[in-house]
Design brief:
The protein has 356 residues and is α+β, with helices and mostly antiparallel strands. The protein has 3 domains: 1-36; 68-188, Glucose Permease (Domain IIA), CATH 2.70.70; 198-350. 14% of the residues lie in helices and 35% in strands. It has 4 helices and 25 strands. The strands form 6 sheets. Strands 2, 5, 7, 8, 9, 11, 13 and 14 form an 8-stranded antiparallel beta sheet that branches. It has a 4-stranded mixed beta sheet with strand order 4-3-20-21, with no helix packed on it. The longest helix is centred in the first third of the chain and has 35 residues, at 2-36. The radius of gyration is 28 Å and the shape is elongated.
Length: 356
């Protein structure tokens, strides 16, 4: 009787262990199926990488960073006038903020959706994927390989191939129809930056003109202008190597040199960390003289020439008559999308009315 009870107990234990093992195998299999499902996030050993991005890159490898040769908010300039200083400063043209990022890849590279959804064609060489919930993505400068209305799967369906001569795919993220900075934390990734933007010069333009005032004698209405640019987070190959990109944030303040008292608190001049301004306000943010990398004059492009990024710190001229005569310091800070920051100072003397 005792032997039968012991045998019965051991049998029940073995059966219980068998059930637990089967359950564990079933759970593991379920996780494997989920991980392999279209549009599921790729497994990663680094927890920080998973939280840094909501979706991977639209080109292989999906879970590794790629060179970005143009940032969200970069100037896009086509001048109708001639390639002269007067043409840059006065001519009409097409001027806009870059509404996505340009990912540098070889021509012919396969492009994939970052999230599953329904694909449509935008013109002859652009694809849009609607993933629902107001989330849409666009892939420009590709030879489409999908049909309008086709259901596409993240990191599986080939949307198209980068067109010959473009050496990049333009990627746009839309939230309820408005462009969003895809390099912001929690969007496209993994993505890192280690070098802060560069600030080189600060000047004061008289009113809304291009004429510059002497920093030794500032009076009346002026527009402070700073030259700022960033370097790409990863080296860009080919024709676009070593060309600048726009910083994500510019702020400024003014303090009295003698006392250190802040007379104009920290003010935002340019901020594309999330969204871009309307294109109609382009010359309210970029100062005349700005132009994109390898800008266009009429039908001619200035190949291999770097752009010039000049930023107005104020939308309207700053009336220095609101300041007492004296010596001031203008401090400008530039920050990239990952928070790396640098600063530049310019001392100027306000002389309104009687000489100081």
């Amino acid at each position: 009787m005792s032997t039968d009870c012991t045998t019965s107990t051991q049998g029940r234990r073995r059966r219980a262990l068998g059930i637990l093992a089967a359950a564990a195998l079933l759970a593991a299999a379920s996780l494997a199926v989920i991980a392999a499902a279209p549009g599921a996030p790729a497994a990663t050993a680094a927890g920080a990488r998973a939280t840094d991005s909501a979706y991977g890159w639209p080109v292989k490898p999906f879970d590794q960073p790629h060179p970005v040769r143009a940032n969200f908010g970069d100037p896009r300039t086509t001048f109708h006038g001639p390639p002269t200083q007067a043409g840059i400063m006065t001519s009409r043209g097409s001027f806009s903020f870059h509404f996505g990022v340009d990912i540098a890849v070889p021509d012919g590279t396969a492009v994939y959706p970052v999230r599953s959804g329904t694909a449509t064609l935008l013109g002859g060489r652009n694809v849009q994927v609607d993933s629902g919930g107001g989330f849409k993505t666009q892939y420009w400068h590709i030879v489409p390989a999908i049909r309008p209305g086709q259901r596409v799967t993240a990191q599986e369906t080939v949307l198209g191939y980068v067109m010959k001569g473009y050496e990049h795919v333009h990627f746009t993220e839309l939230a309820n129809g408005r462009p969003i900075n895809p390099l912001a934390p929690g969007h496209l990734g993994p993505y890192t930056e280690a070098t802060p933007p560069q600030l080189s010069t600060i000047s004061f333009r008289v009113g809304n003109s291009a004429r510059e005032a002497l920093v030794e004698s500032i009076s009346g209405a002026v527009v402070p202008v700073v030259r700022a640019q960033d370097v790409t987070a990863r080296p860009v190959p080919g024709t676009w190597a070593n060309l600048p990109v726009a910083p994500a944030l510019l702020t400024w303040s003014v303090e009295r040199v003698e006392t250190g008292r802040v007379v104009i608190p920290r003010t935002v001049a340019f901020d594309v960390r999330t969204r871009i301004p309307e294109n109609t306000a382009f010359w309210s943010y970029y100062a005349r003289g700005s132009r994109q990398n390898m800008t266009t004059f009429g039908t001619q492009r200035a190949w291999r020439t770097p752009g010039t990024y000049l930023y107005r710190l104020t939308r309207k001229p700053l009336d220095t008559r609101r300041l007492r005569n004296g010596i001031y310091r203008l401090v400008v800070n530039a920050t990239d999308i990952r928070g790396n920051s640098s600063s530049l100072e310019q001392v100027f003397i306000v002389r309104n009315g009687a000489a100081t």
